[in-house]
Amino acid sequence: MKISTLSIGDELIYGEVADTNSARIAASLYDLGLKVRQHLLVGDDLGAIVDALEILATGSDVLVVTGGLGPTGDDLTAQAAAAATGQELLLNEEALAAMQAFVGREGGEFMAATRRQALLPAGCTLIPNPTGTASGFILTLNGCYLLFLPGVPSEMIRMLDGTVLPFIRERFVKKVVIGTKVFTTFGIAEAEMDRVMGDLPDSNAGLALAFRVSFPTIDLKLRGEGDTAAGVAELLAGAAATVRQRLGEFIVAEAGATLDDEVARLFRETGVTISLAESCTGGLIAKRLTDCAGSSAYFLEGAVVYSNGAKHRLLGVPEKMILQHGAVSAEVAEAMAQGERLAAGSDIALAVTGVAGPGASEEKPAGMVFIALADGEGCQVREYGFSGDREQVRTLTAVTALDWLRRYLLTR
Fold first, then answer.
1. For residue 137, is pLDDT > 80?
2. Mean pLDDT for the chain?
3. CATH number for region 177-254
């Protein structure tokens, strides 16, 4: 089956808004065992939209279109769809009634501009919109189904899940059972993961393997197909066991959970308390810890100590040590962790200090980071050399610190 997608909007062309719709559509179709073969992005230009519809409809079985169904003058998708399919643009009474009902439920005023959204190609089939005023619609062109959805992501997702995917599943998807398992990894490169896991699909009929980079983690997705749910479950269970055996410590979470979720779970289960002393990350680690509900049970406090004076005043790091070794050093990282643990009375304390950039030197280049973890038995310090821009270095530092906490708690 050949599927294409088209996203419409000047805000997408100019990079003002990220096109998340096409990614969501592709991922949802992949879960059905279908792949998008091509995607096109055009602005709010009538001729460009018509051309795109005609080009993509040729050679495609399904074309999913998002955007351009709003009430303003630059929303031209319905007009373009009518032109491409040779239909007249008419007031659709069903769409008008749906809009009026929605506005009434929301307690708003039905404006004349909203009525414009009911002007749709003659003969189209409506796609209901439960969360907005713009109805979607279905047409055919050159034997291709054209499915039009609004560009607002929340509306698009509801209509995709509620109407579009069932429509496609009913007409094109083989009657097979599909199941998935997702593993989130950190610390292993995509190419190395592919090498390690490369023979897994070949040795298991009905199994597919995919990778998705979400910096700095990588998701490995197993998709199994079979005639029965039990057969697919057995296929995925065997493949998952192989993944765990081969990737081992690099797996930081499963089943859609995140590294942050896993760390939170381990803190809850172990009863260990933690405090933080952050310099180059500016509180990023504390944010990620406290984003998880219930973190007050184990996270006691965090100190953002950017200046040398703050390191000395709040954590007791000796001024002489900072002068001798510099704020970015193993010695200062250890003193920060020890000082924070003493000040907070926590079971463990984690400290980070580094050069995220700019402000680097030949001796201490951008990306040099020290992370220290102190507990009742002492303190460990590790040095890292991260690459990337300032934000990437900060993110890598935070994720590396969280992964260290995960590994530490697994031993408790």
1. yes
2. 94
3. 3.30.70.2860
Provide CATH code, domain 3-172: 3.40.980.10
Topology at the third CATH level for domain 259-410: Maf protein (3.90.950)
Query: Where does residue 24 rank: exposed (0-12), middle (13-18), buried (19+ CB within 10 A)?
Result: middle
Domain boundaries, the chain: 3-172, 177-254, 259-410
Cis amide bond preceding 358, omega within 30 = yes
**Confidence at residue 407, expressed as pLDDT on a 0 to 100 scale:** 97
Q: What is the rounded CA–CA span in Å between residue 402 and residue 262?
A: 10
Question: Which of 68, 27, 23, 19 has the alpha carbon at shortest distance from 165?
Answer: 27
Stretch among 14-28, 106-120, 126-140, 345-359 having the lowest mean pLDDT: 106-120
Which tokens is 331 given? 């010695």
271 Cβ neighbours under 8 A, 6+ residues apart: 298
Phi, psi dihedrals of residue 133, rounded to the nearest 5°: -95, -20
Burial class (CB in 10 A: 0-12, 13-18, 19+), 330: middle
One-letter-per-residue 3-state SS of 104-147 = HHHCCCCCHHHHHHHEEECCCEEECCCCCCCCEEEEEECCEEEE
One-letter amino acid at 42 equals V
| Cis status of the peptide bond prior to 121, with omega within 30 of 0 | no
Q: Is 282 helix (H, G, I), strand (E, B) or coil?
A: coil
User: Which residue, chain included where needed, has tokens 């491409």?
Assistant: 84
